[in-house]
Amino acid sequence: MNPPTLADVAQRAGVSRQTVSNAVNSPHLLRPETLLRVQGVIQELGYSPNRAARSLRTRTSHLVGLRFAPAQEGTANALMDRFVHTLVATAAVAGYHVLLFSDDDTEPLQAYDDLLRSTAVDAFIVTDTYLGAPQAAFLSTRRAPFVAFGRPWGDPGATHAWVDVDGAAGTALATEHLLERGHTRVAWIGWRKDSFIGEDRRAGWVRAMRERGLPTAGLASRVEDTVASGREAAAVLLDEAAPTAFVCASDTLATGVLHLMAERGLVPGRDLAVVGFDDSQVAQVLPGGGLTSVRQPLEEVAVELVRALERVLATPPQAGTGVLLAPTLAVRGSS
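Request: output the structure for the sequence above.
Response:
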């Protein structure tokens, strides 16, 4: 059977097609009794407005573009799955659908440009906000609506809306958790110095240690975000600084620490304490009670991004604001 049309609803309700259109798009124009009658027929027939026709009329697609990149090999990071699931569900409630697209790393702006030229989406959600990422600046110069998951690192004058998680608060929480359990030599394994996100997370460890009057010299390492790098950094720190606990900028690096401990016959939570960041699925299923990890509130991030999108796409558009959310700590056997 063909799906019911606007004409079918009009005929069954005994009204004009324009009245049905008003019931869907401008209900305030109808008398209450007429609106109730038309809405009853819509529900009875299961009528759904033609999205393509509405897009042509309003010049909007109700689609939001999101670049989706595969998880990096050799890491424990698969957080985008949890984030995207909530984002899709939340956007649908607001009347939008998320259009996932990929891009060539050698041409990181080509897909954005193609979607803008074809007017396929109403706005973008940008997750590439690391230092030097060109997406936000490109969309700003094109005056394309977008919101960002991540602060505008390196661009304090940016005016677009963004939502981020307070990484420094998360690592401070992790460090304080270890200090409260009697550790005084807590080591840090983080990312290269040119990573604003990594340095933000490192700042929380430094702050927590200094508040207790504890040293940090010789207890920190900056490496690439891979399991192998985490293992190598842990080996050097254990041999040269003898820490009793590790706080890591990611679950990937923390997994590297756990690999080294297994090689040396050390038991997590007994011989050494380890805390990661991101609360990945890997952290939740590791043997020995799992990996303690800082959990990003990705569901809340998705909700705030959709709220920001609604403000950006309002008529007239509202000014962009920044929202910084607090993480929590999922305590498991490794600490």
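Residues 196-211 form the longest helix (16 residues).
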